[in-house]
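Recall the central idea of this unit: under ordinary conditions, the amino acid sequence of a chain determines the structure it adopts. In this exercise we apply that idea directly, starting from the sequence alone.
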Amino acid sequence: MKYKRILLKLSGESLMGDKQYGIDNERVKQYAEDIKAVHSKGMEIAIVIGGGNIFRGLSAEKSGMDRAQADYMGMLATVINSMALQDALEKVGLKTRLLTAIKMEQICEPFIRRRAVRHLEKGRIVIFGAGTGNPYFTTDSAAALRAIEIKADVVLKGTRVDGIYTADPEKDPSAQKYDEITFKEVYEKDLNVMDMTAFTLCEENDLPIIVFDMNKTGNFMKITNGEEIGTLVRS
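Accordingly, the structure predicted from this sequence is:
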């Protein structure tokens, strides 16, 4: 087993499937099945999900909303997504815990680092909601921070594309894919992997990132088996 403890970062948009907005239940079910397969090998899995399929703070700010207010609304959107994934995971027989950076006692536990680690050790899937609990920080930053706090071996960033390219492959058909790249090269080439705060956190703590296509069934398992799927970013 290549990794013992992993943090899986999913974008809110990934939960939309083919929809324009909201949550595609079939896509969430697929994720739950893939996560169950990996968990069955004894892997400890923590998850952070974005909220862009429901509400995006930066977009709201551009239309005139106060940035902090908009970001808090975005954090609540991530909790909705986290609850949807929690439900899907429990329907396939997994034990889960949802921990949020904003207290919501009726639906989840507050984030406490030692408690999160203990849940992982007991074999529960841990979902971190509400980002870092602070405005001006993205869920990428939350993923990097939580991964460092729980001493994860790697951040797996599940997206709609199968890795990092020289340009946007959805816009430029000549874009070339990187199988492996260093943090320094990402800076120099100005590639879009994560926001700079998240990326710097990973670099400073020597935490590798793998960007891969989570929408292709079986890719999550292949990565945890050590297959070279997606793009590895390392020191």
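The radius of gyration is 17 Å.
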